[in-house]
Amino acid sequence: MTTILVTGGTGTLGRFVIERLRAGGGHEVRELSRRSEQYPVDLRTGAGLADAVAGAEVIVHCASTPKAGADEVAARHLIDAARSAGVRHLVYISIVGIDRVPLPYYRTKLAVERLIEESGLGHTVLRTTQFHDLALTFARGLTKLPVALVPTGVRLQPIAVDEVAGRLVELALGEPVGHVPEMGGPEVLSLDAVVRAYLRASGKRRPVLGVRLPGRLSGALRAGGLLTPSNAVGKGTFEEFLGRG
C-alpha cells in the first residue's frame, strides 16, 4: 500500500485528486489542509507538517495562494519535511506561461518549480492552463457592471479540473520524471468569447465592448502567453462546463 499525501486537499483541484486516489483503492490517502480533521497543517509555518508527512511515499502538492511569496515559504517547509521523511516522489501542479507572463503570482510559481528541481527529491512537474472555474470567475467579474469592458486580444485555453486531477493521479502513481508535457484545454477562446458564453448560459444581458490595454502584461497575454495549443489534450469544453451549471 502506497501512502500518498495531497496538500490543498479541500481545494478546487485537491479534492478531485483525493476522490480519484481513494476510488482507485490500494492506497492510504492523506488529505492535508488547515481545515483537515486528520492532518491539519499550516504550510505557511510548517505546523503539523512533520506528523502529516511521516511515512508518506508520495506528495501531490496542490496547495497554493495568490499572496505574494507565500507559496515559496510553503514549498520550503514541504521540501524540508519531505526530505526528513524520505519521500520518494513530489508531484507539483504548475501553470502554463509562468515563464512568459509577468504576474507576481506566476513569478512565485516559477520560483517554486526551481526549489523543487533543486531539492534533490524525485519530482514531477505538470503545467496546465486555467481551469474552467477560473475562466468563469473572469467572466463574472467582467460582467458586474452594466457594460462589460473586455480586454481585446486576450485568449484562454480552459481545461476541466477533473481531467487535470486524473493526470496528476497517473503521475503520482508513476516514477518521478521531472517536467512532463503541458496540458491544455480542447479549445482556445478569446476572453470576449468566454464572456459571451457566460452571458448566454446565465441569461444575463450586457453590452460587450472591447478595450485594448497597454503594458507588458497585456502584451504577453495578447501574444498567447497563457496558451499551449500543441498540447490541447483536454476533452471538456467551457460551454459544456457552463451547461452543468
From TrEMBL:
Specify the superkingdom: Bacteria
Listed Pfam families? NAD_binding_10 (PF13460)
**Annotated SUPFAM superfamilies:** NAD(P)-binding Rossmann-fold domains
The segment(s) forming the NAD(P)-binding domain are: 8-133
Q: What is the protein's name according to its record?
A: NAD(P)H-binding protein
Organism of derivation: Streptomyces solicavernae
